[in-house]
Each structure stands twice: as C-alpha cells, then as structure tokens.
Automatic annotation (TrEMBL):
<dbReference type="Pfam" id="PF02190">
    <property type="entry name" value="LON_substr_bdg"/>
</dbReference>
<protein>
    <submittedName>
        <fullName>LON peptidase substrate-binding domain-containing protein</fullName>
    </submittedName>
</protein>
<dbReference type="InterPro" id="IPR015947">
    <property type="entry name" value="PUA-like_sf"/>
</dbReference>
<dbReference type="InterPro" id="IPR046336">
    <property type="entry name" value="Lon_prtase_N_sf"/>
</dbReference>
<dbReference type="InterPro" id="IPR003111">
    <property type="entry name" value="Lon_prtase_N"/>
</dbReference>
<feature type="domain" description="Lon N-terminal">
    <location>
        <begin position="5"/>
        <end position="223"/>
    </location>
</feature>
C-alpha cells in the first residue's frame, strides 16, 4: 500500500510511538504546516519524517564560506542536492501532528507522534514543500520476540543505572516500562545514546525480533563502555532535542 505525504527531513530518526517536538521556522516547512492545518480536526494531520543521509536540515540563508558572494539555495529541496531522494535514508516514519500552533511571527510550534514505518519510493520537489510517495511497512514480530523483549528490558535497566552513575545523578528505574515487544524495541532504540546511522539501522530492521537482538548486543556493549569510562558524557535518556526546524 502506498501513500503520498508531505516530507519533513531531519538529522535524527523518528520511531513509531515516540513524540516529536518541532520548532518550524523555514518557509518551506511553514507552508507545510499551513497546508496541514487545512485538514479537518477530526482527521489525522500526517507527514513523513526521514533521516538525512547527505544534506542539511536547515538551508543556508545567507552568503557562505569560502565564497561570501555565493547565493543561498531556495525552494523545497534546498540543501539536498539535485536528486533529493538520494539525500535521505530509505526508511522513515509517519508522524501524526496532535498540535500545530502558529506563533505571532508566523513560525510554528508542532508536537507530533510517530505512527507507522514507511519506505521512501520517490520525492516530489515541484510544490512549496517536499512530498513523497511512500510504502507502508508492516511490523512483523519475528521469532522469540517476547523472550528477547524481556532480555532487552533487563539490559536496558542496567544501561540506565550505569548511565546515571556516569553522570553522577539519580535516575528512577521504577517507572513502568512496556512489555509489548515492538513497543519495547522502539522505546529502547529511541532512548539509547546512538548515532543516527545506528538508529536508522534499528528502524529498518526486518522484524521486531531482529531489532531486539541488535539492541541486546548494543546495550551490552554500551554498558561495558560506560562501566570502563564512568565519565563518559551523555544526554538525558527520556528527553530528545527539539529540532531547530
């Protein structure tokens, strides 16, 4: 099944079930939000998020170096090269915007939630913002997903404790964690301190069990590193950065 949606490229990976706050100030994405606001409130206001492979989340808006006379790129594909589809990773996530609030200066405050994984088939840059043809990807459980989820949760709790110790702060581990394997796999993928290519690999896993197996190896490796290097810096587990765009 394919669907055409507005496309919002980011320097990060969005997973199903995770909340995405956005500060929208570029005109191409402001146009996207104005268009989404035309959707009836009872209907989902959906757009697709893909991680950038090669390009810039925010387009250059002033003459740059080393040539101070260079003209900044304009348009929906600015910063993504002549063939935008090559600038993005091939699997992304649909986002459902629960809140789209326009500020007095015309920028937007957006709060969305990841819903469904999608494969990027094509990108259209002919309008005021990028749109994409996307194929929805089912989430198959795979073999032994339940048992793997239990192992990942145990390893994740150890990872949390080690990370809290490395930051010399307390971290509550009493909060309820999900037990549905697919939800566990996405929560852990989003919460771990990993680079974008690794997070993208987890998003693209063929099934839940494969993602959980990968996460178990990563958790054990990362916990071992933190144990060895207790001063290793890390960001908060439960909070991600708000996109500048």
């Amino acid at each position: 099944m394919t669907v055409r949606l507005p496309l919002f490229p980011l320097n990060s990976v969005l997973f199903p079930g995770l909340v995405l706050p956005l500060n929208v100030f570029e005109e191409r994405y402001r146009a996207m939000m104005r268009d989404l606001l035309k959707t009836a409130e009872e209907e989902p206001r959906r757009f697709a998020v893909v991680a950038i492979r090669d390009g810039h989340e925010v387009a250059q808006s002033a003459p740059g170096m080393p040539d101070p006379t260079s003209v900044p790129e304009r348009g929906p594909a600015a910063g993504f090269g002549p063939d935008p589809v090559k600038a993005f990773h091939g699997v992304g996530c649909v986002a459902d915007a629960a809140t789209i609030r326009e500020r007095a200066d015309g920028t937007f405050e957006v709060l969305a939630t990841g819903t469904t994984r999608v494969r990027l088939l094509s990108v259209d840059a002919s309008g005021p913002f990028l749109t994409a043809e996307l194929e929805e990807l089912p989430e198959e459980p795979g073999d032994e997903a339940g048992a793997l989820a239990e192992g990942v949760l145990r390893a994740f709790r150890q990872y949390q404790k080690r990370l809290a110790g490395a930051r010399e702060r307390s971290l509550s581990t009493t909060a309820d964690l999900p037990d549905q394997p697919s939800v566990v796999s996405y929560l852990v993928a989003a919460a771990m301190m990993l680079d974008t290519p690794t997070k993208q690999r987890l998003l693209q896993s063929p099934d839940t069990a494969s993602r959980l197996r990968d996460e178990l190896k990563l958790l054990r490796a990362e916990t071992s590193i933190i144990r060895t290097l207790p001063s290793l810096p890390a960001a908060d587990l439960t909070r991600g950065p708000t996109s500048l765009n």
